[in-house]
Specification:
6 strands; alpha+beta; about 15% strand; 10 helices
C-alpha cells in the first residue's frame, strides 16, 4: 500500500516495523518488545514544525500558533499551551528559526526542483519478501523515483555531520526506505 493521505498518527499506530523499530532492535530485541510510548522532546516538536512548514505550509499556517514572546516560561506562552498543546505553540524565536530554515531550503534551486509537484509525507506499507514481516516507511518527499528526507543539524562540518549520520543511523534508513519502495513496487 502506498498513500499520501495517511495521518502521522495512523502511520505510527500501524503495527508494521519501521526504521525506528529497527533502531530499537539494534540495541536489543527486548528494547523493541518492551518499548514504552515515547513523548516527543521539544527538539522533536520543532523538527515536526519544520517539516510541516516546508512540506505542508497551509497546514502549518492553520495549525501552529506563534506567541509573541521569547521564552516558554512566559505566561502568554503557558496560556497558549493550555489551549493548543505544546506541540503546536511556538515562541517568536522558534518561529523565526523555522522561517529561516524554510527560507534556506526553499532558496536552493535543487530543493525547489525536488519539492515542485512532489508528493509529501508519503507512507508505504509492504511486506519484506525475505522475512515476511510487515514494514512501513514514511517519505518526507517522493517524486518519480527520487526521495528526499529532511534532516536538521547543529553542525554541517563534514566530521560533525558524519557523526550525526552514524549516530542517527541514516544509512540504515536509506537502505530500509529503498527496500520498502522496491518491495512495494514488485
Amino acid at each position: 500500500m502506498i498513500t499520501v493521505d495517511l495521518s502521522n498518527k495512523d502511520y505510527h499506530a500501524h503495527h508494521a516495523i519501521s526504521k525506528s523499530g529497527l533502531d530499537l532492535i539494534a540495541r536489543s530485541p527486548a528494547h523493541y518488545r518492551y518499548r514504552a510510548p515515547k513523548e516527543p522532546s521539544r527538539a522533536m516538536e520543532i523538527g515536526t514544525a519544520i517539516h510541516t512548514a516546508l512540506l505542508e505550509p497551509d497546514r502549518y499556517a492553520a495549525e501552529y500558533v506563534i506567541v509573541d514572546c521569547e521564552t516558554r516560561t512566559a505566561s502568554v506562552y503557558k496560556e497558549a499551551v493550555k489551549v493548543h498543546g505544546s506541540e503546536r505553540v511556538l515562541t517568536r524565536s522558534e518561529a523565526d528559526k523555522i522561517a529561516g530554515m524554510s527560507e534556506s531550503v526553499l532558496g536552493n534551486i535543487h530543493a525547489q526542483a525536488i519539492l515542485k509537484n512532489a508528493d509529501t509525507e508519503v507512507s508505504i506499507i509492504t511486506k519484506d519478501p525475505v522475512t515476511g514481516v510487515d514494514v512501513k516507511a514514511r517519505f518526507d518527499v517522493l517524486q518519480s523515483m527520487r526521495s528526499l528526507d529532511l534532516k536538521k543539524t547543529q553542525d554541517v562540518r563534514p566530521d560533525a555531520f558524519a557523526k550525526s549520520i552514524a549516530n542517527y543511523r541514516y544509512m540504515v534508513q536509506a537502505a530500509f526506505y529503498s527496500d520498502a519502495y522496491r518491495d512495494w513496487e514488485t
